[in-house]
TrEMBL record:
Residues 182-322 form the Glycerol-3-phosphate dehydrogenase NAD-dependent C-terminal domain. This is Glycerol-3-phosphate dehydrogenase [NAD(P)+]. Keywords: Cytoplasm, Lipid biosynthesis, Lipid metabolism, NAD, NADP, Nucleotide-binding, Oxidoreductase, Phospholipid biosynthesis, Phospholipid metabolism. Pathway: Membrane lipid metabolism; glycerophospholipid metabolism. Residues 8-161 form the Glycerol-3-phosphate dehydrogenase NAD-dependent N-terminal domain.
Length: 339
């Protein structure tokens, strides 16, 4: 754990931003959480809870919430971005004039910008070219983190000072932080796995067996790797916590919002109603459309993406999609070899 006390800002007071802010505050740093709702800021400052996003969790009393972005990032040495992907550019643009030159900026957002299929580090770099960037991703369900259950994450950056600083800042008795350099691959893992969590949720709702679940998760990983290689990412990154680790948790836990969307779809509910009822972001819904379009454009074989897209947007039945997959040409198990 870091001996130095850092001035840290977390942007986004939803479930993940609040969970990260709480860890950093528990580790003794000076933490400011920026959010939009005055009411929620008061609730965090006075009662030390965020009942909307983390009900039942008592937050560290030293955690300060504010609706003033300039105040939140003033003198900040480290900033975590934890807003949904659709707001990342807007928030980055505002932040650009406020952030000091040597501040470390970590993206935790697991989504993709529609225009140009950009990952969040690319969006942030366009808006704040001088930012010392890193990406954090892994099996990190916000509720379990806030409950201080053991987990680990990955921090990727080209700058070892960034990775070492964040490792020191976040590491504690229940949270390990592994380092990496492959920002693009790690971010791609975090965004893609959400789509497969929707597939797994559907499968769970219709009551598939354990063999089927296993096949689904493994072939999801195969698709993700195939796509990643086509986009120039290192497939080995997908073997780590940000890949297999996050895919596994999101495809198996009812705490995952994407899994829950899938589960409700599997029960025959309407997508718009499900998203509305969720009240939190499920990035996979948007990522599915973008991924489907990219797979078609780049000619990447992604039967699960195509099948899910067919069910949600083209009115195909689940039986039809499953039958097409099961009768497809026999192919290889593992596409890549290190030899
Ligand atoms: N929850 C989790 O377990 C994990 C989430 N992530 C990723 O973190 C990102 C954020 O997710 P999460 O916190 O879960 O989402 P939530 O839906 O729980 O919360 C989203 C938060 O972002 C705020 N927000 C939305 N738009 C803006 C904006 N334009 N300006 C300021 N604040 C805004 C919302 O504010 P308001 O309440 O005012 O609408 C809300 O506080 C996602 O990309 C997600 O994939 C990553 C790891 C784990
Ligand atoms: O990314 C997550 C866990 O690592 C959270 O997944 P959901 O966004 O599906 O809740």
């Amino acid at each position: 754990m870091s001996e130095k006390s850092y001035r840290v800002a977390i942007l986004g007071g939803g479930s993940f931003g609040t969970a990260i802010a709480n860890i950093v505050a528990d580790n003794g740093h000076d933490v400011h959480l920026w959010l939009r709702s005055e009411e929620r800021a008061d609730e965090i400052n006075q009662r030390h809870v965020n009942e909307t996003y983390l009900p039942g969790i008592q937050l560290n009393p030293s955690l300060k919430a504010t609706t003033d972005l300039a105040e939140a990032v003033q003198s900040a040495e480290v900033v975590f971005m934890a807003v949904p992907s659709k707001s990342c550019r807007e928030v980055s643009r505002t932040l650009a004039g406020l952030l000091s030159k040597d501040c470390i900026l970590i993206s935790t957002t697991k989504g993709i910008e529609a225009d140009g299929f950009k990952l969040m580090s690319q969006v942030i770099h366009e808006e704040i070219p001088y930012a010392r960037l890193g990406v954090m991703s892994g099996p990190n369900l916000a509720k379990e983190l806030a409950e201080r259950q053991i987990t680990a994450t990955v921090i990727a950056s080209q700058d070892t000072n960034v990775t070492e600083t964040i490792q020191g800042l976040l590491q504690c008795s229940y949270f390990r932080v592994y380092a990496g350099e492959d920002i693009f691959g790690l971010e791609l893992c975090g965004a893609l796995k959400n789509v497969y969590a929707i597939c797994s949720g559907i499968a769970a709702a219709i009551g598939v067996g354990s063999n089927t679940q296993s096949v689904l998760i493994t072939r999801s990983l195969a698709e993700m790797c195939r796509f990643a290689v086509k986009k120039g990412a290192d497939p080995m990154t997908f073997m780590g916590l940000g890949g297999v680790g996050d895919l596994f948790v999101t495809c198996t836990s009812p705490l995952s919002r994407n899994y829950r969307v899938g589960y409700s779809l599997g029960q025959g509910k309407d997508l718009d109603a499900v998203v509305e009822e969720l009240g939190q972001v499920a990035e996979g819904v948007n990522t599915l459309k973008l991924l489907y379009a990219q797979a078609e454009e780049l000619d990447v074989h992604m039967p699960l993406v195509r099948g899910l897209y067919g069910i949600i947007y083209n009115g195909q039945s689940l039986d039809e999609v499953v039958s097409t997959m099961m009768s497809a040409d026999q192919t290889r198990d593992v596409d890549f070899s290190l030899r």
